[in-house]
Task: structure prediction
Amino acid sequence: MRAMVLEQFGAPLKLKDVPVPKIGPSEALVRVRVCGAGLTVVIMVATPGRIKSYPRIPGHEVAGEVVEAGSEVRTVKVGQRVTNHYYLTCGNCRYCRSGRETLCENFRGNVGQGCDGGYAEYVALPERNLVPIPDGVTDLEASVAADAIATPYHACHAEAQVSPGDNVLIIGAGGGVGIHMVQMARLCGGRVLAAEIGEEKLELAREMGADEVIDTRRGDLVKQVKALTGGRGVDAAIDVVGNSRTLQASLESLAPAGRMVIIGSKPASVYGEDPTFKVNPGEFMRQAQEIHGSRYVNNAEIARTLELVKHKRIRAVVNRTFPLEEAEQVHELLRKNAVAGRAALIVS
Result:
């Protein structure tokens, strides 16, 4: 099969012909039709130590159909279209059993990192990672929904707890996750303040329902937020960028009892700068504010997200698609912050 292979750390992805993977009794072989591409995979392949074994096939936003199922597989069948959960978990520890799979005590890594991923014509995945795609949802939509839309679902619903009438700041609102965060916060009833850099991304945020757009190049972000909220600040600040400047601005933009949600991560080993920010504990306590780390989703949240897409409550925003062999070019565009909305690889 054709696959984009990372042969060693720091190397470019190469198109190679490799064997179709063999499946175990609790796994299924999926024919990949589409694989989403976002900053998560770009950061993963560039972070020292994240990938323990090479060669490795990255890519975790898979949509395709089951072509073979192991002897113990019961919940999916051959011919069924599926997408996937990104984390390789045990399903049995206290966190998995309570719906907090992303905190699994026996975590084995991620699809595309702990095992080969979806930048290939076929991928072998554990049964527990597979989520059926409902009729009415395309493969392209499903590949985006499993991460770039499901992550906003969890962030807005479980972490930011957005309610009708809340002012919600989204930093990085025009990217692959941020543009769906805009839609999700609106769906929850929030008044969305979308912060971005660049006219294309700002216009896309407007198109997707942002009530206000903030060009962060045109003055202090916190001052702009306060001006748009009558000096009060926002009830929720969701940071999809995750550098020290945006995180500090998120915190300082909060109203009393406001909730800050961290989605993005800019590790120093990749971006060359310290992402930490300062919290004044006395002021933080006086204002009764909260900081939430939002770490992906559970399987049930992916299924709910797919239903939102099916019923047209959320639009999957994929503005650019590429053939499999152009994966490295896609990564370079993502490194340059040059993609508005989501990008995806059309595999077959």
